[in-house]
Hints:
The structure is a single chain. This protein has helices at 8-13, 16-26, 30-41, 57-66, 72-75, 82-85, 89-97, 104-109, 117-123, 144-159, 163-179, 182-194, 198-204, 210-224, 262-272, 320-324, and strands spanning 6-7, 54-55, 100-103, 128-132, 136-140, 228-231, 242-245, 249-257, 297-301, 307-311, 328-336, 343-349. The chain is α+β, with helices and mostly antiparallel strands. The strands form 4 sheets. A 5-stranded mixed β-sheet has the order 6-7-8-11-12, sandwiched between helices. A hairpin with a 3-residue loop joins strand 4 and strand 5 (136-140). Helix 7 (89-97) runs antiparallel to helix 10 (144-159), helix 10 packs across helix 14 and helix 11 (163-179) runs antiparallel to helix 12 (182-194).
Amino acid sequence: VALCGITEDELHTCLADHIAQLAQARGWTIEETYKALKANYDGYHFSKRNMVDVYNPFSVLNAINSQELDNFWASSGATTILTKFVPDLVERINDYADNYLIDRFTLETSDITTNEYGLFMYQSGYLTIKDFNDFSYTLCFPNEEVRQALYKMVLPSVMLRDTGELRSTQVRLAMALSTGDVPSAFALLKAQVADVPYSNIKYAERVMHIEERYRLIITIILRALGFCVEVERMQAGGRPDIVLYTPKFTYILELKTESNGGVAAAAQQIRDRNYIEPFLQGTHQCKRSSNAATGSAGVSPAEDGKTDILPASSSSDTTAAETAAYPEVIALAIAVQDEGKGLMEYESVEIR
């Protein structure tokens, strides 16, 4: 086993028998099991001189032992210290989710006097090296396990609620989105957004527009579920606010305040800018900023509140015929209140 973790070669040789047992227990093929392990636990780089992917050994060995692909990073308690060292993490989290640039000298010398919070994120394992040049490093989340753990940790801070209070609603929301139950999903999402204290939303208005603030809150809620979420995805016609990927459904969300036209304006923008068409042939997958995760994993919410990340083609309730079809595209125009008090209503948008 490598010094800092497990390499791809070691996973396929030293642990091959254990991976086969895990695949059998989960009802997956060997290839699907390797893909799921890679999406969840791979992606660490510790030096620009050696950019070989390294798996988190703690998580891989726990997955083999338990025969479950759980979030072992979160259960280790590794997220609890983060809010003490990274001020305004809620506002910063999407900066870290995308390609985050850090000065080369700061990272290579571990210069903590710069108040560069990205350096702490890197040193504590939340970010890893994705790329580098003569002037800077590009950092990103190494894998889905870390990404989901971080968003799950931030969510109670946004809501000012205990983690246990959020778990039931989060599981029901994940199940509604996974099955295409739009009315239930919107009602649950609306309830969670309504739980965000008014003072939190008004405070953020000092640094961001109210629609941008809603987009941040919804993104945190959805990414805490473990789904792949893209914010302002670049397309030929424009940038939809949020694109959410599940194994069976792709959701396109466009937000507008009441004073900016509400549902009618959001729906018209979806149509005018042709947000739906690029997803109709199933050629668009989630563009992760991380090294290992490429949107190939689906999410299966368990009854106990845990989220098991599965290969999209082997979800426990998905047949071969179903997975052969492209994910169904659901576009939603959503009205939000100008005063920051929550979501108002939605409209499903069809191509005319």
